[in-house]
Amino acid sequence: MIHTFRFHDAQNDLSFNGRMHIITVELAKAEKLAREKAAGELGAAEAWAVFLRYHPEKEKRALVNEILKAKEDIAMAGEAVQGFTQEEIEWFRNESKLKYELDMQSRQAREARLEREASERGLLEGLAKGRTEALQEAEEKNHREKLETARKLKAMGLSPEQIAEAVTLSPEEIEKL
Q: How far apart are CA 21 and CA 2, in angstroms?
C-alpha cells in the first residue's frame, strides 16, 4: 500500500543520495482497511491512508474524527487541510492530474526510445550479419574463379609454380586439380 521511490540518474549513475523520495499511498486499499479495522487498530501508515482517502467525505466523518483523536500527527495535518478552500483543493487535483499525465507521457516516450534503440540495434546486427555473409560469399566465389583459372592454365601446360604465382593459390591446391 505504501511505496517509496528514490531518484536515480541511470545514464550518469548518480543518485540524490537519499535527498529526495516520493512516497505514494494506494488509497484504494484504504477502503478495505476502513471496513476491516477500527481507528485504534490502524498502524501509522494505514491511518494516514484512511485519513487521506476519506477526510473530504462527510459520510466518513466519524471514522476520520476517530483517527484524528488517536493520531496526533494526523490531527495536525487535519487542521491544515481544514483550512484549504475549494479552489485550492481543485488546484491540487488538477496538479495531480497534470503530474499523472506528464508521468504517462514520460513513460511512453521512454518506451518509444527503448523500442527505437532495440530496432536500431537489430538493424545494425542484421546489416553486420549481411555484410559478413556477403564477404564470405564473395571470398568463396573469388576462390572458385581462381580454381577455374588455374584449371585453364594447367590445361595450357603451365607449371604449378607459374599457375600459383598467377592466381595466388598454393602449389598443393593446384596439384589437386
A: 12
